[in-house]
Amino acid sequence: MDFKIIHIDETDSTNHWMKQHGEGEMVVVADFQTAGRGCGTNTWESERGKNLTFSLLIHPKEIPANHQFHITEVVSVAMCDTLKVLGLQDVSIKWPNDIYVGDRKICGMLIENRLQGSVIKDSIIGIGLNVNQQMFASDAPNPVSIYQLSGQETDLGLVLDTFLKAFDKAYKSKTTCFAYREMLYRRGKDYLYKTKTTCFTARLTGVTDEGMLRLLDEQGHEHLFAFKEVQFTL
């Protein structure tokens, strides 16, 4: 994809900026977000100028509305591939779209798809990647940055360029769905999960085409969960 890249000093959130100003295939990068958002009510802590906070605007009209989870797969795989190119190891996707290194969160996303009939009119993909931040002050349980892992600063422009190339590759690939499932955090091993009413041990086996999480309990029964219906016990 041939993205137009806009750099701004500050905004409330790059997704909100994109909704107001976005057109065509575009990327907006902000040095600082005053109200950076994650999924639901979550916020994103980011020191000014230290991390990569940006949004993409794409128009994936060839993707049916009922397969919109594919956007999540593409972005998540692209970010994992980016971090691997930058030398990080043990990179995985904590369903649906948090990126982990080991057991620590390095990247979060907020993907907002706008539908038009049976297709996706456009998709605004907000990404917060911890790059050069050395300390985190919020009560987030497990943040980590590239700097904390590598001990050195990384050029933000290089990271963005690497990601956009990885995104283009993942978007065009016919194996991205498979790669997403292979990269899932805790895939194939027994861990503790919890819902609003119970805790249980289960094995993560994959996701459905619609993005529901597949968990196999100790009795061999498969359960499907939508986002926010189940939590990982960290």
Main structural class: alpha+beta
Helix content: 10-25%
Low-confidence stretches: none
The major β-sheet equals:
7 strands, mixed
Coarse morphology: globular
SSE arrangement, N to C? EHEEHEEEEHHHEEEEE
Percentage of residues in strands: 25-35%
Q: Span from first to last CA?
A: 37 Å
Strands of the widest sheet, in order across it, are: 1-2-3-7-6-5-4
The number of distinct helices, counting runs of at least 4 residues, comes to 5
Can you offer a commentary on this structure?
With 234 residues, the protein is of the alpha+beta class. It is built from 5 helices and 12 strands. Strand 8 (190-194) and strand 9 (199-207) form a beta hairpin. Strands 1-2-3-7-6-5-4 form a 7-stranded mixed β-sheet, with helices on both faces. It has a 5-stranded antiparallel β-sheet with strand order 11-10-9-8-12, with no helix packed on it. The model has no long low-confidence stretch (mean pLDDT 93). Helices cover 23% and strands 34% of the residues.
In short:
With 234 residues, the protein is an alpha+beta fold. 23% of the residues lie in helices and 34% in strands. The protein has a 7-stranded mixed β-sheet with strand order 1-2-3-7-6-5-4, sandwiched between helices. It has a 5-stranded antiparallel β-sheet with strand order 11-10-9-8-12, with no helix packed on it.
